[in-house]
C-alpha cells in the first residue's frame, strides 16, 4: 500500500508546542484539508498538543501521516509518558479535568474525529488515536476486519526500509510485511520492489509468491518477508515467511507464535518452503506482525482490556514499550472492528 511512513513530532515541553502545531497543520493541508474541515483539524491539533504539554510531565511523541485508505484523511497517534488516567472514559466527558482547566479537550477531539480511541494505565501513560477523513460523510465499514499499521523510520532517517502491502479480497485480506536489509534508501528500494511484486501475484499461495519475489529481488539488497492470507469465510490463515518478521495470532485466552524460514528473499532461500495453515476465529483472534525494529519479547497480558480497543492502540502500546530505536519499525495489527 502506497502510504507514507508516520512522521514523529517530539513535544518534551511547551516551548515546542507552536512549532509542532504548525507542522501538523501543514501536513493536514498537504492531505487536502481546507476551509471548515481544516479549522476542525486545527482544533484537534491544538487540543492534542495542549493536553500533551499539560499532562505528560515526562514528555511524549506524536506520530502522524496523511492516509489514502479507507478514504483520504489524516491520522494522529499520541504516546505520552505521563502518570496515566484512573478513569479514562470519565476524562472524556466535557467539564472533567485533572488540571483545573475547562475539561473540553478530549471531548472536542472525540467529536471532531471520525475515529477516536484512548487507552491509559496508571504509572504507564496514555495513547490517543484520532483519524479524520476529508469528507465527514464517509462512513467506514463496521463489523469487519480492520488493518492498522504503525510505520516509523529509524531515528535520523526520512526514508523507511520497511514496507507493507494489503489486498482486500472481499473474503479476507492478503498481507505482505517486508523489511529491506539494513535501513535507508537501498533497504527502501528492496522493500518497495518486493511490495510491488507481491501486488502482482495475488492469485498465488504465499510460498509461491515468496519464490517469485525472490527472483524479482535478486538485483536489490534483499528483504525478509512474511506473506499472509486471511480467509474469513473458511476461518483460516495461510502464511509463509522467510527471515525475522515476527508474527503471532493472539486472543484474550491464548497466543500462537508463527514460524519463519531462515534466509533473505533475493539472496538466500531455503530449498523447500511450504505454507502453514492455522484456524482463524473472526470475532476473537488478532493478528500481530512486526519487523525487527521491535523486540519480540512482548506479552499483551500487561495491557488490561487492550483487546477491546482499536488496532492502532495496540500498535502504539507495543511501540511505546518495545521499540529498539535502532532500526525502522513497522507493526501491523489485523482485528475485528464492531
Task: Name a few traits of the molecule.
30% strand, 338 residues, 7 helices, Phosphatase 2c, domain 1, globular, 5-stranded antiparallel β-sheet, alpha+beta, Heat Shock Protein 90
Task: Report the strand count.
Answer: 15
Q: Taking all residues together, what is the mean pLDDT?
A: 90
CATH superfamily of the largest domain: PPM-type phosphatase domain
The low-pLDDT segments are 95-103
Enumerate how many helices there are, as a single number.
7
In percent, how helical is the residue content?
A: 25-40%
Task: Provide the succession of SSEs.
Answer: EHHEEHHEEEEEHHEEEEEEHE
CATH topology of the largest domain: Phosphatase 2c, domain 1
Q: What is the 3D form?
A: globular
Q: How does CATH name the architecture of the largest domain?
A: 4-Layer Sandwich
- Whole-angstrom Rg: 20 Å
What does this molecule look like?
It contains seven helices and 15 strands. It has 338 residues and is an alpha+beta fold. It folds into two domains: 7-133, Heat Shock Protein 90 (2-Layer Sandwich); 144-337, PPM-type phosphatase domain (Phosphatase 2c, domain 1, 4-Layer Sandwich), CATH 3.60.40.10. The chain has a five-stranded antiparallel beta sheet with strand order 1-2-3-5-4, sandwiched between helices. The chain has a five-stranded antiparallel beta sheet with strand order 6-15-14-11-12, with helices on one face.
Amino acid at each position: 500500500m502506497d502510504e507514507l511512513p508516520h512522521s514523529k513530532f517530539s513535544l518534551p515541553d511547551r516551548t515546542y508546542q507552536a512549532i509542532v502545531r504548525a507542522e501538523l497543520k501543514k501536513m493536514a493541508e498537504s492531505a487536502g484539508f481546507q476551509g471548515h474541515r481544516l479549522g476542525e483539524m486545527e482544533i484537534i491539533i491544538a487540543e492534542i498538543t495542549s493536553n500533551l504539554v499539560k499532562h505528560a510531565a515526562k514528555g511524549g511523541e506524536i506520530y502522524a501521516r496523511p492516509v489514502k485508505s479507507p478514504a483520504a484523511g489524516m491520522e494522529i497517534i499520541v504516546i505520552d509518558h505521563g502518570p496515566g488516567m484512573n478513569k479514562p472514559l470519565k476524562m472524556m466527558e466535557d467539564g472533567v479535568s485533572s488540571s483545573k482547566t475547562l475539561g473540553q479537550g478530549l471531548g472536542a477531539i472525540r467529536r471532531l474525529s471520525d475515529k477516536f480511541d484512548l487507552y491509559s494505565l496508571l504509572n504507564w501513560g496514555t495513547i490517543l488515536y484520532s483519524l479524520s477523513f476529508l469528507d465527514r460523510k464517509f462512513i467506514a465499514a463496521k463489523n469487519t476486519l480492520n488493518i492498522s499499521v504503525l510505520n516509523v523510520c529509524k531515528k535520523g532517517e526520512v526514508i523507511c526500509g520497511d514496507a507493507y502491502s494489503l489486498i482486500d479480497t472481499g473474503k479476507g485480506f492478503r498481507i505482505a510485511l517486508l523489511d529491506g536489509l539494513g535501513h535507508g534508501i537501498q533497504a527502501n528500494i528492496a522493500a518497495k520492489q518486493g511490495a510491488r511484486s507481491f501486488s502482482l501475484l495475488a492469485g498465488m499461495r504465499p510460498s509461491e509468491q515468496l519464490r517469485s519475489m525472490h527472483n524479482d529481488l535478486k538485483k536489490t539488497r534483499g528483504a525478509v518477508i512474511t506473506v499472509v492470507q486471511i480467509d474469513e469465510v473458511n476461518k483460516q490463515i495461510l502464511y509463509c515467511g522467510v527471515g525475522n518478521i515476527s508474527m503471532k495470532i493472539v486472543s484474550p485466552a491464548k497466543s500462537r507464535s508463527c514460524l519463519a524460514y531462515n534466509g533473505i528473499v533475493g539472496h538466500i532461500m531455503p530449498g523447500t518452503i511450504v505454507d502453514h495453515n492455522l484456524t482463524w476465529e473472526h470475532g476473537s483472534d488478532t493478528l500481530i506482525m512486526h519487523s525487527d525494529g521491535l523486540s519480540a519479547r512482548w506479552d499483551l497480558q500487561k495491557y488490561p482490556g487492550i483487546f477491546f480497543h482499536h488496532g492502532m492502540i495496540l500498535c502504539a502500546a507495543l511501540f511505546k514499550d518495545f521499540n529498539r530505536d535502532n532500526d525502522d519499525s513497522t507493526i501491523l495489527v489485523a482485528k475485528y472492528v464492531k
